[in-house]
Amino acid sequence: MDSPSLKVGAGIVIVKDGKTLLTKRRGSHAAGCWQCVGGHVEFGESPMETVKREAHEELGIEIGNLRLAACTNMIKYGKHYLDLTFAAEILVGEPRIIEPEKMEEIRWFPLDELPEPLFEPIRIALEARRTGEVYFEIKEINECVCP
């Protein structure tokens, strides 16, 4: 059994015309939760490079105009992550599911009508957008999973 370790994740939140782009997770921790696009920062890669790669791999889009939206030290879902979420804009392409093993659905949601359950990093990023706060601490030692 592997010993617990800190991982670094990076994601994006895309808001356009009062709606945010979300995908429904499949096949990983927190399956069934609605999330933003993102993934693990690979060795030698910057978090901004990570989100650009993930947007292309998962949705077939190119993103730009990245700005840090939130930084979270999160212990949840039985994992410990340092999560960096960026606000981004779609520069090229129309979002579509490229990796169906990782997501089952993609939709734009009005900011005042978000689906449940939300994956914690997207909830935090949208809270950061609303409040201007950037750093968050989430510690829920008991594993929480989405239904």
The CATH architecture category equals Alpha-Beta Complex
Q: Which CATH top level class fits?
A: Alpha Beta
The radius of gyration computed from the alpha-carbon positions, rounded to a whole number of angstroms, is 14 Å
The CATH homologous superfamily: Nucleoside Triphosphate Pyrophosphohydrolase
Number of domains: 1
* CATH topology group: Nucleoside Triphosphate Pyrophosphohydrolase
What class would the helix/strand composition place it in? alpha+beta
Number of helices: 2
Kindly state the number of beta strands.
8
Largest β sheet strand count, sense and barrel closure: 8 strands, mixed
Give the low-confidence spans: none
Q: What string, H for helix and E for strand, traces the elements in order?
A: EEEEHEEEHE
Q: Average the pLDDT over all residues and give the rounded result.
A: 90
| Proportion of helical residues | 10-25%
The CA-CA distance between the termini, in Å, is: 26 Å
The backbone outline, from C-alpha atoms, is globular
What amount of the residues lies in strands?
35-45%
